[in-house]
Amino acid sequence: MSTDARPERASVRLSARTIVNYAIGSLGTGGYSTLPGLVLTYFLTDNLGVAALAAGIIVTTAKVWDVVIDPLIGAASDRQLARTGSRRGFMVIGAVTLPVFFALTFAVPPSWGPVASAICVLLAFLGTATAFSLFQVPYVALPAELTRSYDERTRLLGWRVVVLTAAILLFGAGGPMLRRATGDPVTGYLLMGIVAGVAIGVGMLIAARTADAAAQAVSTQLAPSPDLRTQYLSGFRALRRSLPFRALLGTFLLQALATGTMLAGAQYVATWVLRDEAAVEVLFVALVGPALIATPAWTVIANRIGKERSFLAASILFLVASATITFAVWAPGPWIYASVAVAGIAYAGLQSLPMAMLPDVISHDERTTGPGQAGTFTGIWTAGETIGFALGATAVALMLAATGYVSSVAGASTVQPDAAVAGIVLSFSILPAVLMALSLIPLARYSLRRHDIDELTSRSFEE
């Protein structure tokens, strides 16, 4: 890029159209992150009769596949940007193919038997995961290329998280409602998969348009693209050389694990603790309603005291809120919704703040290594996020297996032992609280502050 292009990108306020188009992409990311995490393990154990441990292995295997391919997709996305001037191609492919694989994931009938059903779900979900990664990895790279402004990134990612939070509510409450709409679990899950898959794909397609705006800002400053293997490995080299990236990724991975355990356990809490399968919708309203209001507030707080301090405050608030749910082991009841609502306020910050900090990390690294590597960073980032959520579902499955949870097929009635119900509560409360506490250790090592980013911007003006 010419020497005056960087200052321009730093000083210009992002247009409302760019922000809206980018934010709508979270309709896709929110849907994909919410519905499988919420209902897939439950679909396997309570609809297809798959044992809890086997269900956990299926979900984990698909997510491990993400961890393998995400850095590769990140490197390929950087190559595509250098070659074509845009990351849009991969995003469109993911948007078009995901609805098909998503619907197939929930199209497996119980009549096929647990083994055949488990294999088919695994293959379909692998396809879904691949399609999502094709979109998500370049999508997360775009903010670092759209603007260099510390506050504009907070603004951009803040609105993205508003849509993400609304999407969590839409899919978290609407998905189970669609599942019950037909009165039959088999056709209900199929309807849910089709409608949700299409909605996710549409959100992705709209967001893909933002890639062209980002490309206009960076395409002329890119160095020649190295070979794929070199660029694939560069993501891991970035992890080694950047302390802020390691600290932020370690924090986010542990927090994804914490929120993943709550997400995977929510349907079990509704069914076996609150004794109402439909209560999962109320749990999501309790979580997401406050988060919708809180997201703009976290943006204001971050502008005043800094993103890293705001992130710490949100983490501690989530820790306390989730820990209080432990009392449901002895006294379950509707009071759980209040604790979930407080966690929802914190959750808004846990989503928006690290995503606004990641572009700062990428820009900081650009000063020494040069531009054009945002995809390598976001490939590693998405892999870390994915493995966190995957292990969250695995942790719940292991807890269910260890406490004697009884799986069943659709329409069959069963009774769970007291130990299994206690395990469900613990996986929804004390386990995420402990993981959140552990995440504070790497967060304490995050060193970038506002003045570091402002200094980078001022140097860009001088150049």
Automatic annotation (TrEMBL):
What keywords is this UniProt entry annotated with?
Answer: Membrane, Transmembrane, Transmembrane helix
Q: Which InterPro entries match?
A: MFS_2 (IPR039672), MFS_trans_sf (IPR036259)
According to the record, the segments passing through the membrane are: 20-44, 50-69, 90-109, 115-135, 156-174, 186-207, 247-270, 282-302, 311-330, 336-358, 387-407, 419-441
Q: Which SUPFAM superfamilies match?
A: MFS general substrate transporter
Organism listed in the record: Microbacterium profundi
Record's protein name: MFS transporter
One Pfam family assigned to this protein is MFS_2
Q: Which residues form a coiled coil?
A: none
